[in-house]
Structure formats: structure tokens, C-alpha cells
TrEMBL record:
GO CC, alphabetical: plasma membrane
Domain Phosphatidic acid phosphatase type 2/haloperoxidase: 101-255
Domain of life: Eukaryota
Pfam families in UniProt: PAP2
Membrane topology recorded in Swiss-Prot or TrEMBL: Multi-pass membrane protein
Keywords, alphabetical: Membrane, Transmembrane, Transmembrane helix
Family: Belongs to the PA-phosphatase related phosphoesterase family.
Residue intervals passing through the bilayer: 12-34, 62-82, 209-228, 240-259
Name of the featured protein: Phosphatidic acid phosphatase type 2/haloperoxidase domain-containing protein
PANTHER family, sorted: FI04477P-RELATED (PTHR10165:SF197), LIPID PHOSPHATE PHOSPHATASE (PTHR10165)
Keyword Transmembrane helix: yes
CDD domains: PAP2_wunen (cd03384)
Listed InterPro entries: PAP-like, PAP2/HPO, PAP2/HPO_sf
């Protein structure tokens, strides 16, 4: 194990855990910090808000398995397997397992935070707004009244009537947070992260089509989750497009950060090994130029990767 891990593993792990815990607390209590979502108005003749209410094709439980649990389990199993195979990777230590997991979890929480900011700031109404909200204006009238129906007035002063629509409190609350699609963002983040990680590791069976097929399966699953949100009238197509781009973009940025961190660790580990070798070689051999200087070893590592 490298000298870096022996010198300061506890400090690094504790800092990572504390920061991750703070982000989770922020996400779980985002409504308390931000306040209620923006209350947007509507036109009574807006056909994009007149779709019926449908149950989710991809439930919240299934979404968490596709976007969080299965990707996390897959990454842990894959990295644990590679950490014991020196014939596959030359840096066979447990550190890459920790590095991959911590960056995945950080990216997951960060992606969730960006999604919540978008939902609360924009406050876009869902396609099934009228079916769930059954809005009533302050004077007691509604869009079904002749004086309101078909007008071009933009209504902002209204209250939902769950007693008419039989909607639950959660349905009423969620009807104002259509943009961006949270299902799309979560599915694309978790599954695209796995696809990019398989590409970076060139696993399994490097040189064959097996790895690309697995990557395609990950992207196809994420794509189906995104399409289901339009199919179920939960989101407008632009909500799904934004959520998919957010999730895929977050995965790309985080996987690059994890790769950069791993490269730096490998180079520092090579430098530490070079310094240890330099300390035990004969002084005459070092003066004779047989040992590469440690600084040159670090530069060579960075260039070669």
C-alpha cells in the first residue's frame, strides 16, 4: 500500500464523509432552505396542461435501483475484482474502489441538488395540471365557466381543489415541479456513469463488442426511463431533455474528476516507490545515472497517462 494511504487515510476519509453528509442534509431539507417552489400561472386554453393523470411506469423504487443501487453495487463489485487482478491493472490496491465510490456518490448528490434548484426556481406546471389541481380562482369561478374559458388572460391567483380532483397532498405539491425531469436526471446519471466507467476500464474482454453492448444496455435503460415520463404525461418533452442532459453531463464531469484523481494517485505512488528505491541503492550507482530521478519519474508517469 502506498505511503500516501499510510500517512493520512483517516483524515481524508473523514473529510469526504463529512462533506458528503452535509450535501445529503442540504438535499433532503432543500425545501426548508429554499422555500416553496415558484408558483407559475397558466392560460385556461393551454392544451399542454390538459393531459390525464397516469401512474408511473417506472416507480420510485425501480428508479432508485436503476439509478443508484445497481450502479453502486456494480461499481463496488467491478473495482473489488480489479483490485485483486494485477494482470488487468498494474495498481492492484483497494484505493480505486474507495475513489470510484466516493466520486459516484458525490456526483449523485450533486446531480440531485442541481435538479432541485431547477424544479424550485422554475416551478413549471406538469402536463396533468388541470386533472390534478382543478384550479379555482379567488372569486370562486374556474376555467369551465364561460367568462373564463378560452380567454387569453394569464392567471396567477388560484387555488387547487383536491376535493374535486381526488388528488393527494403529494400530487398537489408535485404538480408545480415539472422542470427538469428528476427520473431522467437520476437514471442518466447512474447508468451513464457505469457506461463511462466500463469504457475507462476497458472491461470486460477488451477489444471485443461485449463492453460496448453493456454500455449500450445502460444507455438504453436510461433512455426508456426518460421516455416513460413523457408517455405517462408526467413531464413535457423539454423537461425530459433537460433532465437527461443534466444527468449525463454530471456523470461525464464526475467520471473525469475520478480519473484525474486516480492518475494523480498513481503518479504519486510511483514517485514514492522511486524515492524508496533511491534510498537503498548504492550511492555510486545513483551518481552514475542508473537511477531515474524521482521528479523525472513523476513527470514520465503524467506524460504516459
Amino acid at each position: 500500500m502506498s505511503s500516501i494511504l499510510r500517512l493520512r487515510p483517516n483524515m481524508r476519509i473523514w473529510v469526504d464523509l463529512v462533506l458528503l453528509a452535509l450535501l445529503i442534509v442540504l438535499v433532503e431539507n432543500f425545501g426548508a432552505f429554499w422555500g416553496p417552489p415558484t408558483k407559475r400561472g397558466f392560460f385556461c386554453d393551454d392544451e399542454s396542461l390538459m393531459y390525464p393523470y397516469h401512474e408511473n411506469t417506472v416507480s420510485s423504487t425501480l428508479l432508485h435501483w436503476l439509478g443508484l443501487y445497481l450502479p453502486l453495487i456494480s461499481l463496488v463489485v467491478l473495482e473489488s475484482f480489479l483490485s485483486h487482478r494485477k494482470d488487468i491493472v498494474p495498481w492492484a490496491t483497494p484505493w480505486p474502489v474507495y475513489n470510484t465510490v466516493r466520486w459516484f456518490l458525490y456526483g449523485y448528490v450533486f446531480n440531485d441538488l442541481l435538479k432541485l434548484i431547477g424544479k424550485h426556481a422554475i416551478g413549471r406546471l406538469r402536463p396533468h395540471f388541470f386533472a390534478v389541481c382543478s384550479p379555482q380562482f379567488l372569486d370562486g369561478s374556474s376555467c369551465s365557466d364561460e367568462s373564463r374559458g378560452g380567454g387569453l388572460k394569464y392567471h396567477t391567483d388560484y387555488e387547487c381543489q383536491p376535493n374535486l380532483s381526488q388528488a393527494t397532498e403529494e400530487m398537489i405539491r408535485d404538480v408545480h415541479v415539472s422542470f427538469p425531469s428528476g427520473h431522467s436526471a437520476m437514471a442518466f446519471y447512474g447508468l451513464v456513469f457505469v457506461a463511462l466507467h466500463l469504457r475507462r476500464r476497458r472491461w470486460p474482454l477488451s477489444g471485443s463488442l461485449l463492453s460496448p453492448v453493456l454500455q449500450l444496455a445502460c444507455v438504453a435503460l436510461a433512455w426508456f426511463v426518460a421516455l416513460s415520463r413523457v408517455m405517462d404525461y408526467k413531464h413535457h418533452w423539454s423537461d425530459v431533455a433537460a433532465g437527461s442532459l443534466l444527468g449525463a453531463g454530471s456523470a461525464f464531469v464526475v467520471i473525469r474528476a475520478a480519473a484525474s484523481e486516480e492518475l494523480q494517485w498513481r503518479c504519486q505512488d510511483s514517485l514514492a516507490s522511486a524515492k524508496q528505491a533511491a534510498a537503498v541503492v548504492d550511492g555510486a550507482a545513483v551518481k552514475g545515472g542508473q537511477q531515474m530521478p524521482p521528479d523525472l519519474s513523476l513527470v514520465t508517469c503524467q506524460i504516459s497517462n
